[in-house]
Design a protein that fits this description.
Strand content: 25-35%
Shape: globular
CATH superfamily of the largest domain: Quinoprotein alcohol dehydrogenase-like superfamily
Bound molecules: calcium ion
């Protein structure tokens, strides 16, 4: 299949085609075992766990680099990850070594001082699994414990590697392969147990987290986040309690509630907090007719790390019906609130409210919206529950234009909390969506997106004026939030949504990369931008920092991708000038240069011709089918970001027979293109082809999308 390299100017194909080499070159020094005490201590020479330490504050005590000298920051080294899709990993640094993951779960071990590769490991994941990855074949990083590295894969495995050599120690399957599970999250290691959840709620799974023995890979416990079929018996009393908050036959579509990203371990209280995702399907009137809170969807749940036993929960969005996950980053801290020291957990989930919760009991302390929201007026102080706007619960009503949409007011991109400034730094965004019932009715199809909502409502309008108007509603900013006063301290506006995770430091600095391919440092107290670097490729991942030989390094991985880029990166390009997965490492006084940005040759593609059979009615049918089946990956308006094939100009689109082979006979299943046999009929598949050809012949193309979206500089 030919790919049009139009929406993104990429580096030369030779670079993209370069695959990481598997190698097991031994490092000269031995690994100092990583312990709980070390993770809690968070030595400044290291970055030992996903969130920096168990509290997940992503704030460094280092101040060698500070707001006064950050202007001298320069590129020390860069390492090419050999991929051109989304990179979301937080690197782990220990003993002068850096461990980072790239697309398709390839693990790279580098010399943290030089970026020189020590070893890499390719778990050779089942690429068919890409069909189940809602939001790109991404991974958020490894964990380290003892002398082992732990990585979880898109095809549901958890793997232990020898940190020194990259050799596999054990490799276990954590999911039921007959179901559309995926893993994108980073494991956490608590008391010798490796903890990992999974994703796939939209496609029809039941969420859980599992704990595995770090030495052997043996499963120690599993905690389900939603109840199963009562007829099969509940696993425990907690599931029985949760089932009382559901109606109908919720288990048929799995129920959802996947824990695909956030976790935090409280070493003081010996509790593990798990962030739980949305329901399956989204539309609650289908999932649980008659309502109910539907525990533990959209909740923070505290469990005992030794047994997985339930302790408490707080539900951010009872009866969730908008894909409002509570899987977003959770930060643990102690702070004085109304004269009393409180042990709190903080979260800014998709629903747009910033929550401060007592982490001993789960008691609600406070919440306020950190972006404009129109689904709830506020969170009731007595009950801790949202006071909903009636029209927002869309089922049986008119479609509703809502803020936030399913991309969230804040997605997976990590926040940080500075005890020095007392502020939480949030990669916040405004991305609306229109929610509504499916006029033609809903049918569950395992392995496809099952939202129970009409997806075409959420797609951008095709008339240029409305498109422009809606585009102006899309925003992204670095937001500094006072968690005690529950109000904004300052914010810095970016060119659009879907920007990178955050690092803050005792040097009065906040670091963040952006979707438009820059990495910048801000004054933590005022938000003044103090330094900015052009990274060529957009950034989603969070930076880290560490000090070796008295020099402070800052590292971040570039790689443009994820849900927003797949769905809207073509029609709303951010300005990512290339898409080269890299680790970039900076230090004071360095003056390294990235390889020159080479623009791909612009290839003139022949427009497909609208065929006589492609009537307006057929195109309309194809539009609806495309919105449900194709748009999340191939892009709104059949215009792809370039991450995966551009259907508008593909040779496959031009030929009805080949199209049918690809779409309905699984010709490209090994490349991650789902086989839609049994999921739609041939007539619908052909209607989608007509729609794609119609879009290709529309007056909206690269020039229009660039003109509307790209920053003017
Ligand atoms: Ca979701």
């Amino acid at each position: 299949m030919r790919t049009l390299l139009l929406s993104v100017a990429v580096l030369a194909l030779g670079v993209l085609a370069c695959q990481p080499q598997s190698s097991t070159k031994s490092t000269s020094k031995s690994i100092t075992p990583v312990t709980a005490a070390k993770i809690i201590e968070a030595p400044t020479s290291s970055w030992l766990s996903h969130g920096g330490d168990y509290n997940e504050q992503r704030h460094s005590k280092l101040k060698t680099l500070n707001a006064n000298n950050v202007a001298e920051l320069g590129l020390e080294w860069s390492y090419d990850l050999g991929t051109s899709r989304g990179i979301e990993a937080t690197p782990i640094v220990h003993d002068g070594l850096m461990f980072v993951t790239s697309t398709w779960n390839i693990v790279h071990a580098l010399d943290a001082r030089t970026g020189k590769k020590l070893w890499s490991f390719d778990p050779e994941v089942d690429k068919k699994q890409a069909a189940y990855a809602c939001c790109d074949v991404v991974n958020r990083g490894v964990a380290i414990w003892g002398d082992k590295i732990f990585t979880a894969t898109i095809d549901g495995r958890l793997i232990a590697l020898d940190a020194k050599t990259g050799k596999v120690i054990w490799d276990v399957l954590t999911v039921d392969k007959s179901k559309p599970y995926t893993i994108t999250g980073a494991p956490r290691v608590v008391k010798g147990k490796v903890i990992i959840g999974n994703g796939g709620a939209e496609l029809g799974v039941r969420g859980y987290v599992g704990a595995f023995d770090a030495e052997t890979g043996k499963q120690i416990w599993r905690f389900y986040t939603v109840p199963g079929n009562p007829a099969e018996g509940f696993e425990n009393d907690t599931m029985k309690m949760a089932a009382e908050t559901w109606n109908g036959e919720w288990w048929a579509a799995g129920g959802g509630g996947t824990a695909w990203d956030s976790m935090a371990y409280d070493a003081e209280l010996d509790l593990l907090y798990v962030g739980v995702g949305n329901g399956s399907p989204w539309n609650q009137s289908i999932r649980s007719p008659g309502g109910g809170d539907n525990l533990f969807l959209s909740s923070i749940v505290a469990v005992k790390p030794d047994t997985g036993e339930y302790v408490w929960h707080y539900q951010t969005t009872p009866g969730e019906t908008w894909d409002y996950t509570a899987t977003q980053h959770m930060i643990l801290a102690d702070m004085e609130i109304k004269g009393a020291m409180r042990k709190v957990i903080m979260q800014a989930p998709k629903n747009g409210f910033f929550y401060v919760i007592d982490r001993e009991t789960g008691e609600f302390i406070s919440a306020n919206n950190f972006v404009p929201v129109n689904w709830a007026t506020h969170i009731d102080q007595e009950t801790g529950r949202p006071v909903e706007v009636a029209d927002a619960r869309y089922s049986g009503k008119a479609p509703y234009l809502q803020l936030p949409g399913p991309l969230g007011a804040h997605n997976w991109h990590p926040m940080s909390y500075s005890q020095d400034s007392g502020l939480v730094y949030i990669p916040a965004q405004e991305a609306p969506w229109v929610y509504g019932d499916i006029p033609t009715g809903y049918e569950y199809t395992e392995g496809l997106w099952n939202t129970g909502t009409e997806f075409s409502y959420g797609m951008l309008p095709t008339d240029k004026a409305t498109f422009r108007a809606l585009k102006s509603m899309l925003k992204g900013r670095l937001l500094a939030w006072d968690p005690i006063a529950q109000k904004e301290a300052w914010s810095f506006e970016h060119n659009g949504p879907w920007n990178g995770g955050i690092l803050s430091t005792a040097g009065n600095l906040v670091f963040q990369g952006t979707s438009d391919a820059h990495f910048a440092a801000y004054d933590a107290k005022t938000g003044d931008q103090k330094w900015k670097y052009f990274t060529q490729t957009g950034i989603g991942a969070a930076p880290i920092t560490f000090e070796l030989d008295g020099e402070q390094y800052v590292s971040v991985a570039s790689g443009w991708g994820g849900a927003y880029v797949l769905g809207f990166g073509g029609v709303l390009p951010s300005g990512s000038a290339a898409n080269v997965g890299r680790v970039l490492t900076f230090k004071l006084g360095a003056d390294g240069q990235l390889p020159a940005l080479e623009k791909a040759a612009e290839i003139e593609y022949e427009l497909p011709t609208l065929e006589a059979s492609m009537t307006e009615a057929l195109i309309k049918k194809g539009n609806l089918g495309y919105a449900k089946m194709c748009g999340a990956c191939h892009g709104d308006q059949a215009y792809s970001s370039g991450l995966i094939p551009q259907l508008r100009f593909s040779a496959v689109t031009k030929d009805a027979e080949t199209w049918n082979e690809v779409v309905m006979q699984g010709l490209l299943a090994e490349n991650g293109m789902p086989n839609f046999a049994g999921k739609m009929d041939n007539e619908t598949a052909e209607a989608i082809r007509a729609y794609v050809i119609s879009e290709a012949n529309s007056d909206r193309g690269k020039a229009f999308y660039d003109e509307v979206s790209l920053p003017k500089e």
